[in-house]
Design a protein that fits this description.
alpha+beta, Peptide Deformylase, five-stranded antiparallel beta sheet, two-stranded antiparallel ribbon, 30% helix, 26% strand, globular, binds nickel (II) ion
Length: 192
């Protein structure tokens, strides 16, 4: 997710050269791979650890506050989030096989959402204000946590990716079509 809390890039050429080694290209809508349903993570091996590290590099560089594995072309139920502001220490969080076990239902909150797979487009989306989520960490250990505020919105946005859903799918057809047209137009110009 690319939200209101946007990061500035760290202007250290040495660091960005090294981290460029681990960056992965982000799929951009309407790439059909973004529509697929991601599958459960069963094996917590070195390859998974590498993918997680690469996802953080890619998200920090973008810059974004959340990224699902499918956004770098890996259909795994894995997402990374860091909501720290640029003047705060990094606070990387990993959520594997997350499940929403409870929501605040009618108690909703609205955030202006953006997405690294829908660059430069933003829209207000309403979601349950609080959720309780079970998940595994990068070592495979089980956790359960109640979330509110931006974290609640961000994890719901990222978990939508695991089902092949983008934030624009929550908008009216007219609004979605308009955003996607604007996106297509800006991509066309970007490539020229
Ligand atoms: Ni997104």
């Amino acid at each position: 997710m690319r939200g209101v809390h946007r990061r500035r890039l760290d202007a250290n050429p040495g660091t960005s050269y090294l981290s460029a080694m681990a960056m992965r290209p982000i799929l951009i809508a309407p790439d059909p791979r973004l529509k697929q349903k991601s599958t459960t993570v069963e094996v917590f091996d070195d390859e998974l650890q590498r993918l997680i590290d690469d996802m953080f590099e890619t998200m920090y560089e973008a810059p974004g506050i959340g990224l699902a594995a499918i956004q770098v072309g890996e259909p795994k139920r894995l997402l990374v989030i860091d909501l720290s502001r640029e003047d705060e220490p990094k606070a990387p969080r990993v959520f594997i096989n997350p499940e929403i076990v409870w929501t605040s239902a009618d108690e909703l909150s609205t955030y202006e959402e953006g997405c690294l797979s829908v660059p430069e487009q933003y829209a207000e989306v309403q979601r349950p204000a609080r959720v309780r989520v079970t998940y595994k960490d990068r070592e495979g250990k089980d956790h359960e946590e109640e979330m509110d505020g931006l974290l609640a919105t961000c994890i719901q946005h990222e978990m939508d990716h695991l089902e092949g859903i983008l934030f624009v799918d929550h908008l009216s057809l007219a609004r979605r079509s308009m955003l996607m047209r604007k996106l297509a137009k800006s991509r066309k110009f970007a490539r020229v």
